[in-house]
User: Which sequence fits this backbone?
């Protein structure tokens, strides 16, 4: 079948965007963390708790550590004294390898902006200093030390469920005159934590979209709605509070006035966002998303090339 150069270029564009979506998580470094368990899992948990508090303002070490104690105890109680001591030794070695204590480096003229990694390490240690003396009498019998502890603040080696709502705008790149609209959907994805950095998830999505086409004769715009469905596959990269979603999926859409005219397409999306520490079984998050959807034409409708921008609000449920 003959394809115009413009159509071939757009199809290649979707392939290139999809490849970039898959490669994107590999471009982010993991950052320092112990290699051995369970101290690795403990460090990643405490790092996220510290980062979530420092994201807005870290006022004073002791005060912030006291505020973080309840969340930190859930992790610290599950690592025995030997594991905690190994983590302390690792933190001390990392601080020295980065030039020594942050206060001493700052006094010597090192800019505050260059001390972020050292300050994070020291703040994790402060949280341990404040919380550890309480562990002997306050850890519940239901959370004894576990040599296989995989962490609380990541999805490592566990099944989770993503419950999400998303909305935003869409722009039809090949429609003349220019056509834009909005979209909203909800979805539930079943995921598994491949390790403490990557979670793979997939599931159904249902929603609706609207376009506001302009009549060439009158110049007025009308509202045209469509039903949406999809089956996305998401690879989520996690670094502390930072999230990067890479998504590929198949889609289906039908205008409300032509339910027999279903069009099936393909979508590639990326999402950048942030998450909060897990409370109970739930961890909330917010992402800003950008995507490209190719919807090949059929007997009822022409091919559509759609750019999508929006937000996604959800939570990670560890049932």
Assistant:
């Amino acid at each position: 079948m003959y394809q115009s150069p413009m159509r071939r270029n757009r199809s290649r564009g979707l392939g290139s965007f999809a490849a970039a979506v898959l490669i994107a998580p590999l471009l982010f470094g993991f950052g320092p963390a112990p290699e051995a368990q369970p101290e690795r899992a403990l460090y990643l948990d405490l790092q996220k708790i510290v980062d979530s508090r420092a994201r807005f303002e870290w006022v004073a070490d002791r005060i912030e550590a006291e505020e973080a104690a309840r969340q930190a105890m859930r992790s610290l109680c599950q690592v025995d004294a030997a594991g905690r001591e190994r983590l302390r030794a690792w933190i001390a070695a990392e601080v020295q390898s980065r030039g020594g204590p942050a206060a001493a480096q700052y006094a010597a003229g090192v800019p505050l902006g260059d001390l972020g990694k050292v300050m994070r390490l020291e703040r994790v240690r402060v949280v341990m200093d404040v919380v550890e003396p309480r562990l002997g009498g306050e850890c519940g019998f239901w959370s004894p030390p576990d040599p296989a502890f995989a962490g609380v603040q990541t999805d490592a080696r566990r099944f989770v469920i993503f419950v999400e709502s998303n909305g935003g705008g869409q722009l039809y790149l090949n429609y003349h005159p220019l056509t834009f609209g909005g979209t909203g959907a909800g979805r539930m994805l079943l995921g598994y934590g491949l390790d403490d950095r990557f979670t793979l998830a997939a599931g159904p999505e249902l929603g609706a979209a609207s376009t506001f086409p302009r009549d060439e004769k009158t110049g007025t715009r009308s509202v045209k709605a469509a039903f949406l469905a999809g089956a996305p596959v998401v690879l989520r990269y996690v670094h502390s509070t930072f999230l990067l979603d890479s998504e590929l999926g198949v889609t289906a859409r039908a205008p409300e006035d032509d339910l027999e005219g279903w069009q099936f397409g393909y979508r590639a999306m990326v999402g950048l966002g942030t998450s909060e520490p897990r409370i109970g079984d739930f961890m909330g998050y917010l992402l800003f998303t950008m995507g490209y959807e190719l919807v090949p034409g059929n007997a009822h409708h022409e091919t559509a090339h759609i750019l999508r921008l929006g937000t996604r609000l959800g939570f990670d449920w560890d049932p």
In short: Confidence is low (pLDDT under 50) at residues 1-5. The CA atoms of residues 71 and 88 lie 19 Å apart. The helical segments are 5-23, 39-54, 61-76, 81-97, 102-107, 116-131, 135-138. The first strand starts at residue 159 and ends at 172.
